[in-house]
Amino acid sequence: MSEVLKEPIFDENTNVNVKEENMVPYEEKGRTTVDSQDGTDFDGDEVTQGPFSSLSFEDKEISTSGSENKLSHPQLDEAALQNASSDEEDFHDARDKVSPAASSASDPSVSRASSTTTISTQNLDSGPSWIEHPKHIFVLSEAGKPIYTLCGDEDNDQTVALCGVMQALVSYVADNDDSIRSIRMADTAIVFLVRSPLILVGTCRPHRLTTQQLTVQLTYIYNQILSIVTLNQLNKIFEQKRNYDLRKMLAGSERLINHLSTSMDTDPAFFLSAVRCLPLAPNVRDVVSESIIRYCGGKKGKKVVFSVVMARNQLITLVRMKNHFIHPADLHLIFNLVNATESFKDSESWTPICLPKFESSGFLHAHVSYISEDICLVLLSVDRNAFFELSEARVKILERLERHNIITAIKTSLDTSEYDCESLDLPEIRYFLYKSRTSAQFTSPVPALCYRSNPQQINRLHSRFLTIQNRFLVASRPVKLCYFSTSNETILGWITQSFELFAVLPPTMAKITVLTAVNKLLRWIKKEEERFFILTAPTF
């Protein structure tokens, strides 16, 4: 029986309609606003529960029976949608709050009533061509020393000067017992994430990424750094030498951060805090899991904590040691390591990796190998000397999978797993994201042609989804249902204990048609859930 974690319960009586103009982050024309933080930290990482995570909002484990891992879909009725369409409801980002510390300081250059600072932007657009890139990510130490930059060179004089300014801004706000969160201008958004002893800064041109998306990305970049240098190592280094050049320890790993940054621009898995599973018949997936348990379990299984099988950035199965859980954010780091390292395809590899959500103070040792052209097996062990034992286990696992024709079944699924809404007899729906919250997994179709022809349109939709998602998670007034209509499309966002859904429909569609289409979609997902999701987590 699998162990799953209960979801936070939202107030079922609270519904909201979000107007388009209220969805857009506040910005003054020609001015720059600095948002400060009032103590409620948002790391861009929704805490998810289920067989892949032991974290709740209080970092406590809560167990339920395996039967609760089945998806349960309430019916959406017109009354609920009517309640969700109140035009009097204003949308406010959960993080756009006035800081208590900001209201007590007396610096005349800062408007403490609104927690904003006006600064000049006259010279920000001047400089070499690398500055003209639409997105930048900077990592620097609290001493202002550059560690990583997505574009340009850390040793460039202008990069060094920019990092000095960033460090000064963080220090200035910190001196007033506050922390800087973002600077929003008419043409650029700048987001800060302070994770002592590091400062991470992301900038983006408008209409590409929102401040929420940048915060999510910076959090993942920070976790990627911790996967290379553990938190204990990081703190010890900078305690001994505040001006240490961390690039020495990150040398050769820049490709991981670069690949992660590129992936986050297009993959909804990151803001959903979920993984995409390869659709497979349950008996096929069970054979893969049973093979891993047979040859990595028992006495030798004590050395293997997690076993992951993946193909083309999709999860096939995950087997874990009993009472140990893996967070989706850690799975994303494993996926990124595999996808960014082409040399893994040539031979078996042995590499240390820290999974920050699982244990930020130490390394696991990963045996990484491809058992087919697109199918990768990752065995994570606590024993640094277990390479040869795991290599033998890999051979036996592969032999059993081939004997049962599992490799062929997986390859067939890889070639045929894509689907669109028309094939589901749901032509009214242009696109959707469905996340099973109990298992931290999601599925989505190929977008309609009107979005497929322009990738920026999909990015725009994902930005809207994230804005609605943040509204779901506002602690002071969470909502369950959001009906958001523009001249381009209608978006229905819906969150329950068991699922999170974002559906895109035509803007002129009547509400009763929206209700019918969404309920029909939920019935189809319920019917296919065993094929699209791993509902029970196999254990050693």
Spans with pLDDT under 50 lasting ≥5 residues?
A: 1-51, 53-71, 85-127
Put simply, the count of helices is 15
In quaternary terms, these chains amount to single chain
Rounded mean pLDDT score: 79
Topology:
Elements: E1 16-17, H1 20-23, E2 33-37, H2 78-83, E3 110-111, E4 116-117, E5 135-141, E6 146-149, H3 157-174, E7 179-184, E8 189-195, E9 198-204, H4 211-228, H5 231-240, H6 247-250, H7 254-264, H8 269-272, E10 275-276, H9 282-296, E11 304-311, E12 314-320, H10 328-339, E13 349-353, E14 364-370, E15 375-381, H11 387-403, H12 406-416, E16 431-436, E17 441-443, H13 449-452, H14 455-472, E18 481-485, E19 490-495, E20 499-505, H15 511-532
Parallel strand pairs: 1-18, 10-17
Antiparallel strand pairs: 2-7, 3-4, 5-6, 5-9, 7-8, 8-9, 11-12, 11-15, 13-14, 14-15, 16-17, 16-20, 18-19, 19-20
Task: Please describe the structure with a list of short key phrases separated by commas or semicolons.
7-stranded mixed beta sheet, Beta-Lactamase, 6-stranded antiparallel beta sheet, 32% helix, single chain, 19% strand, 540 residues, alpha+beta, globular
Please characterize this protein's 3D structure.
- There is one protein chain.
- The protein is α+β, with helices and mostly antiparallel strands and 540 residues long.
- Among the domains are: 32-48 and 96-269, 2-Layer Sandwich (Beta-Lactamase); 280-416, Beta-Lactamase, CATH 3.30.450.30.
- Helix content is 32%, strand content 19%.
- It is built from 15 helices and 20 strands.
- The protein has helices at residues 20-23, 78-83, 157-174, 211-228, 231-240, 247-250, 254-264, 269-272, 282-296, 328-339, 387-403, 406-416, 449-452, 455-472, 511-532, and strands spanning 16-17, 33-37, 110-111, 116-117, 135-141, 146-149, 179-184, 189-195, 198-204, 275-276, 304-311, 314-320, 349-353, 364-370, 375-381, 431-436, 441-443, 481-485, 490-495, 499-505.
- Strands 1-18-19-20-16-17-10 form a 7-stranded mixed β-sheet, with helices on both faces. Strands 2-7-8-9-5-6 form a 6-stranded antiparallel β-sheet, with helices on both faces.
- A hairpin with a 4-residue loop joins strand 18 and strand 19 (490-495).
- Helix 4 runs antiparallel to helix 7 (254-264) and helix 9 (282-296) runs antiparallel to helix 11 (387-403).
- The longest helix has 22 residues, at 511-532.
- It is globular and about 60 Å long.
